[in-house]
TrEMBL record:
Belongs to the Glu/Leu/Phe/Val dehydrogenases family. Residues 183-426 form the Glutamate/phenylalanine/leucine/valine/L-tryptophan dehydrogenase C-terminal domain. The record marks 146 as: Important for catalysis. Pfam families: ELFV_dehydrog, ELFV_dehydrog_N. Gene3D superfamilies: Leucine Dehydrogenase, chain A, domain 1 (3.40.50.10860), NAD(P)-binding Rossmann-like Domain (3.40.50.720). This is Glutamate dehydrogenase.
Length: 428
């Protein structure tokens, strides 16, 4: 899989494009092009073999005009400060477009978590909080899981913060385990949010979801529940999913012409989304190369892995049948690819709208932590559906009103809300 070399430049380019369309004041533009605060730190960890290894960590707070910064923590070997900056900026727009009272933040550690033991992972998680705990909290910055992290790791982080602050503080972290301050529905939230926006887009396009096929890139949490929701709720068919092999670092696509069974594939997938290819082959699946997913003759493409996957090169491989791209990942499409997508008239659900389900239920989790009262799963998912549906139609209405691309419309909605909040607080 190709990763965009500089995600932050891409995020700034997308922002600059819409800032021009909005004729945004240059001073306001400069405030929003860059994060308000950045933290770079080193985390020493005593490894199981007795050595001390030092890891590089980041936390970026882009803009908190609308509320506390919010965003996940990635453990990934290719993590960079620019990736974290881009993701923090996208979180600002994501929270605004979903109309939840939070700003944008993101964190990261340069590490492949699969190379660590459970004990080493716990030490690294606690070490991350030890470096940053004075600059996060329920009222200023609330981390969450992302690529390479999971609910248990969030539980360790919440516990370390509570120890250092001297009080039980479940709201400092979201995406926690159930029973440890977590919310029902959080596991499914991002993937199901993708499905809710696809459902609304298909209504707009007058397409019957039960007659639609989809190809998905990725098979981590987002992809798994996007596939499950697309099949079980919309009655559509998913012909393939893809991911990368953590042993040989070679990407692959797992496909089946009569449709994949995501519930079965989950049983042969590790916690990082890597599918056991031998078991998949034994069950009748075909293993193809990493980019095969994008070439499939389907109605819908769902990139739900890493940034920069639909780029100037790969966009040309998209099958003419594709009518809809639903961006489950953050920043999966480069500006160069956007131009080709516009020319081909493919409807797009932009990332920070499409995948806002996770942060929306993270917000719900924080609300429940504050109340010390927890909702049922059906209540959570019903509230999520309502929020995602409202957000989709707000962007669609802007797109039609201004006759602009859906990504530009989403930025227009989000930027307007953030700028208004900055004005109301007297920042401008």
């Amino acid at each position: 899989m190709t990763v965009n070399p500089n995600a932050f430049e891409m995020a700034q380019q997308q922002f600059d494009h819409v800032a021009e369309m909005l004729n945004l004041d240059p001073q306001v533009r400069e405030m929003l092009r860059w994060p308000m605060r950045e933290y770079h730190f080193r985390i020493p960890v005593h490894m199981d073999d007795g050595t001390i290894r030092v890891f590089e960590g980041f936390r970026v707070q882009h803009n908190d005009a609308r509320g506390p910064n919010k965003g996940g923590i990635r453990f990934h070997p290719a993590e960079t400060i620019d990736t974290v900056r881009a993701l923090a900026m996208w979180m600002t727009w994501k929270c605004a477009v979903a109309d939840i009272p939070l700003g944008g933040g993101k964190g990261g550690v340069v590490i492949d978590p699969a190379t660590l033991s459970v004990t080493e992972k716990e030490k690294l998680c606690r070490g991350f909080i030890q470096r940053i705990w004075k600059d996060i909290g329920p009222r200023n910055d609330v981390p969450a899981p992302d690529v390479g992290t999971n609910p248990q790791m969030m539980g360790w982080m919440m516990d370390e913060y509570s120890k250092l602050s001297g009080q039980f503080t479940p709201g400092v972290i979201t995406g926690k385990p159930l029973g440890g301050g977590g919310s029902l529905g959080r596991t499914e939230a991002t993937g199901f949010g993708v499905v809710y926006t696809i459902r609304e887009a298909l209504k707009h396009l007058k397409m019957d979801p039960a007659r639609c096929t989809a190809a998905i890139q990725g098979f981590g949490n987002v992809s798994q529940y996007a596939a499950i929701g697309f099949i079980e709720q919309l009655k559509g068919k998913v012909v393939c999913v893809s991911y990368w092999d953590r042993d040989d670092r070679i990407g692959y696509t797992v496909s089946k012409t009569d449709g994949v069974d995501p519930n079965f594939l989950k049983t042969i997938t590790d916690q990082y989304g890597s599918i056991d290819k031998a078991k998949a082959k034994a069950a009748g699946y075909v293993i193809e190369d990493a980019n095969a997913w994008i070439t499939k003759e389907v109605d819908i493409l769902i990139p739900a892995a890493l940034e920069g996957q639909i780029n100037a090169e790969t966009v040309r491989q998209i099958n003419p049948r594709v009518k809809l791209i639903a961006e489950g990942a953050n920043g999966p499409t480069t500006p160069e690819a956007d131009e080709e997508i516009k020319k081909r008239g493919i409807f797009i659900i932009p990332d920070f709208l499409c995948n806002a389900g996770g942060v929306t239920v993270s917000y719900f989790e924080g609300v429940q932590n504050d109340m010390n009262f927890y909702w049922t799963k059906d209540e959570v998912l019903e509230k999520l559906d309502t929020k995602m549906t409202q957000a989709f139609h707000a962007v669609l209405e802007m797109s039609e009103k201004e006759n602009v691309y859906m990504r530009d419309a989403a930025y227009m909605v989000a930027i307007d809300k953030v700028v208004k909040a900055m004005q109301l607080r007297g920042w401008l």
